Amino acid sequence: MPPIGLDPHSPLPPQQQLCRLLQQAIQQGQLAAGSKMASIRALAAQLGISRYAVLAAYEELAGMGLLNPRHGSGYYVRINATPPRQARPAHLDQVLDVALLIRGLVEPNNLLKCGSGALPKEWLQGLDLHRHLRSVAARPGANVYCYGSALGYAPLRDVLQQRLARRGIDCSAEQILLTAGSTHSLELLIRCCCATGDTVLVEAPGYYNLFSLLHLSGMAMQAVPRQADGPDLDALESLLRGGLRPRLFFMQSLLHNPTGSSLSWSKAHRLLRLAENYDFTIVDDDIYSDFATDQAPRLANLDGLQRVVYLSGFSKTISSDLRVGYIAAAAPLLQTLARVKLMISITTSEFIEQAIYQVLTHGHYERHLTQLRKRVGEGQDSMRQLLSTCGWHTFAAATQGMFIWCRHPAGKDSLLLAQEAAAAGFWFAPGSAFDPDHQPSAWLRFNVAYDTPELRAWLSTI
After folding, report:
1. Residue whose C-alpha is closest to residue 49's, from 95, 90, 16, 93
2. Which among 19, 116, 217, 285 has most CB atoms closer than 10 A?
3. CB-CB contact of 315 with 118 (8 Å)
């Protein structure tokens, strides 16, 4: 690193002076592309300034596209480092289409939500949430007027640490950050780990709300086809060997949305080797985790949260409205996520977190899960038999969870099918919504909890 001298009489604070000097050194070639920057501690000691000032300068340079932060390793000069790029225009037409799709799902209407991503409320009411909410509100220590803590309600994080341990995911409660649901978790990770124009990997088909978040953030998405046992790793390895260098890979190991498929052990091991060899982080969204067993393949179980960030929550098994999710990650990344959370939302609702804690510890939650898994399993069998009788082709031979991903026997465009279904009183998301580029698709997502006589009658006519 070239000699750096800060002016103690300058009106600029040390971090701004340091940022300008390093920016000039990088753009003039005094710092070689790919070279590692001095550690934050060492540079702070050398210049006689705080470590925070060095970190702020490095983060600013990373946001300008000049440095590449690598968690656990440090900061590196980007290859072909360039001045800050203008954000590429977001595909607002596609984003708005997805927003309208979600609006049709969440707002009151007369459509039966046969393609919904959630269970009917009747399947969840056995938890008696009203009683738990009243119980929490009646406590003298209930936090209904003040902010919660940065990481979230500590007793709930302790319970989550124990639940993760049963899944073989070893972490402390300080490595768990509570969020306002999985979408909030994804937004925090995008803001923390990516800069405008970065390349990220997504599964195709995949979660349409994730695609919209990435579009709005100016990310370049590269699709990896989803197969019945996980992502197509031959296709992924070909992309990586061809020079693709993604920052993150957003995926779902278990009970994938929309296909319902789960990752095999062999693919899990191979995927982690690719992440290590090509230096990218895997974001594993395990929002449907409680429909699977604790022994099911989870990347965080094998990796120990080194190259895997683990997401989950309770919107699918407790309530879509009491939005509590969580992130488990390596300690340095977790602390960064907590700081960004403070900037975006200050804190999450401790009252709601206390209510979820009450359900998990005093609400017979495990018995509730057993009943849900039984009903969902019966729904899978019944819906698969119905679709087979009607000639539909299903994506995977056998799945757990609430989804079946299937194709009309004549290969009819699913957008037309969704429109016909709406006219008949049923809500479906067309397959194109689950494609990163919104390409036409013949596939539809069915929720097995909505097997009704009316749906059976309609399926027999199309």
Report:
1. 16
2. 285
3. yes
Superfamily of the domain at 92-123+366-459:
Aspartate Aminotransferase, domain 1 (3.90.1150.10)
What counts of helices (H) and strands (E) characterise the chain? 16, 13
Write the pLDDT tens digit of every residue in 103-152: 776 776 788 999 999 999 999 998 999 999 999 999 887 778 888 999 99
| Phi-psi group of 225: left, alpha or beta (phi > 0 → left; psi -120 to 50 → alpha; rest → beta) | beta
- As a residue count, the chain comes to 462
Asked if residues 201 and 430 have their Cβ atoms less than 8 Å apart, the reply is: no
Per residue in 44-60, pLDDT tens? Answer: 899 988 887 788 788 87
CB 456 within 8 A of CB 462: no
Give the β-pairing of 393-394 and 403-407: antiparallel
Dihedral, CA of residue 12, residue 17, residue 19 and residue 25, to nearest 10: 150
Q: Yes or no: is domain 142-362 CATH 3.40.640.10? A: yes
56: number of Cβ within 10 Å: 17
Instruction: Return the number of other C-beta atoms located less than 10 Å from residue 125's C-beta.
Output: 10
